[in-house]
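Write out the 3D structure for:
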Amino acid sequence: MKSDTYSLALSDGAHPYLVVRSKRAKHIRIKLSNSGELSLVLPAGTPDSLGHSFIQSKSVWVEKNLSKLSISEKETIPTSLNLRVLNEQWNIDYINPSSTQMSLQEDDDYCLRISGDISDISELHFLINQWCKKKSKKIFTLMLQQLAEEHGFHYNGLSIRAQKTRWGSCSSKKNINLNCKLLFMPVDVVRYVMIHELCHTLEMNHSSRFWDLVEDCDPNYKKHRRELKRLGKEVVL
């Protein structure tokens, strides 16, 4: 089987998908893995244009099912946060469990104090993710600006999100989205993700031209990409 990577335009940016040409396939079909990897399977001899039109017509289905993946929570109560990008270790203390309102307070000693009933894991993760979003907005804004200036890219805006399946995206209007959970990645890996999305401001695809552009900006991008995949499995939020 032969395969190539392309991008599907969704409401919040581009999502990569792999085109797989199969001699055994009789019909065009879409596959979405539990990790969010999207594939378009084409029977041998099917024109690429027909396949791309098909998957674009199913974009609503793709978004709906990606959302279902992002809703799934790991039943974990974190006791610390390792912000690798900042080389900071934050401890989490849980206090006042009898309080009906869950709240988070940041102390100067690299400690987050969370009060209230934490039996609702989804609500707990939401609270911590909100803190991560605020923390990453300030850091990533500066990092992205510096990288764009360094490599001559232009983008319109930056949004921070807490997603399960994507580390970043870039819209056709050159608006970049970054996952706040990149806080848990080493700085070189974060830089790779930013460069990846900045390159999409010029190439809204994953063609050889795109990857050549990425490599020009980050010669070790393949290593950083592997690290992202490996470390991403450790993120519990």
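The chain has two domains: 2-71, 80-232.
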